[in-house]
Amino acid sequence: MVFxxxxxxxxxxxxxxxxxxxxEQTADKNAYQLEPDNTDLGxxxxxxxxxxxxxxxxxxxxxxxTIDQHYKKFGPISxxxxxxxxxxxxxxxxxxxxxxxxxxxxxxxxxGYNNSLAHFxxxxxxxxxxxxxRFQRRIMQTAFKTPAMKGYxxxxxxxxxxxxxxxxxxxxxxxxxxxxxxxxxxxxRTFIGIEGQGPVAEKVNKAFLDVGxxxxxxIKREIPGTKFARGKAGERYLSDFFDSLIPDRRTAEGNDMxxxxxxxxDADGNLFSNxxxxxxxxxxxxxxxxxxxxxxxxxxxxxxxxxQWQQRLRDEILSLDKDDIEYDDLxxxxxVDQAVKEALRMHPSVMMMQRRTIRETDIGGYRVPANxxxxxxxMYSHMMPEWWDEPETFDPDRFGxxxxxxxxxxFNYMGFGGGGHKCIGMHFALMQTKVFLFHFLKSYRFxxxxxxxxxxxxxxxPKPADDLPLILERL
Length: 475
Ligand code: HEM
Hints:
alpha+beta; 18 helices; 12 strands; binds protoporphyrin IX containing FE; heme; EC 1.14.-.-
């Protein structure tokens, strides 16, 4: 079923772009996409764990501890079972460089995520490989260039200001759900170009959240009442909704990502098909939303524990001496930038990335057969004392010009991934987090409520377990 969906998309792409492609040759080149995962890994140390679930329960309970135990017992390359998939856990920047730079085209992102994301996001950028991925990514880049970013900033800043202004005077303010809702509002306007409030936005939000839940559903069939079935209904709603907007957006003026995707031609003057626009915009919403919500929650978690850092960031923001933030101000907040990166080092929003080998290859001296899923864990490598000084300490100065710990290896910092699939929305995310912190820290000093529980959750989404209850003091 997954393949059928992908194949339709692939055929459409050929027709829509009116390209002369040798279909047989392309099919051969893509033959790895038809192969099942290889689990014949007995020659590599490690343990898969329980049948089917593998080590999922242990990872959900203690992500870091489980990886730590594997790494110390079996070394940087070890067999592991997680989320219904059996593959290899790979730990360490040198291996990440090999996988992400991928000079010999040995690693597939599409097949790495085939078990987890393809049910809802087949054909999206992360689930594409090679030339097709490069081709589509190049077209999408226009939506992330400076003129577009300046336009997004103008839309998001007043919205963030007016929403955070309303937050004052609450003594038990649950930050996580509030910021999640605010970012969805911003996304409606900057990604889709619709109002973030009202009945349409509510339906879009619900459908989007249902798709997110559907991804986590254990049963991957459309049985009524299941998360998966609700997710599929949400997916259909969003598809129809985007379809209703696309014809107008082909010609209308607009500074939202949907409009960019509808109007940006490739080198031959061809546009994305409706199907491609829909897939890319849906995935963008997914890739942007929880990740940024998680990042901001962890910044507040860390600067809530460290009032000195909270004040240093506020001082930097106040030193701008402005009521509102403009695009040129973004570079004038280096400490805020470093604080976001440091929060993502300690608590990466994407804790585990996946790839699959396309052909047999050597990793760390082990023969790794074709079609083997690789699990890449920045959450662990970001805490390795070999690469970071006192990794348990929240210390944004480590990213400053004097120390540059993130430059000790080209792949010791993976907060936004690396290589060809590096986060296309990184600058958008860093801009949005800065704009948020600018308005929030200028308006409030905050601390945790007395009953605050400092536990962190890793799965399904890294976040403070009790949604970060805060006491906000208006300044
Ligand atoms: C703090 C927020 C964010 C974090 C931590 C984050 C992290 C990441 C990471 C780690 C990857 C690489 C995944 C891999 O290689 O397997 C990635 C890819 C991606 N991200 Fe982000 N992301 C964030 C925000 C955003 C935003 C705001 C957007 C869109 C506006 C976005 C769109 C994407 C897309 C489309 C990809 C796939 C790129 C490709 O396959 O070429 N992300 N992100």
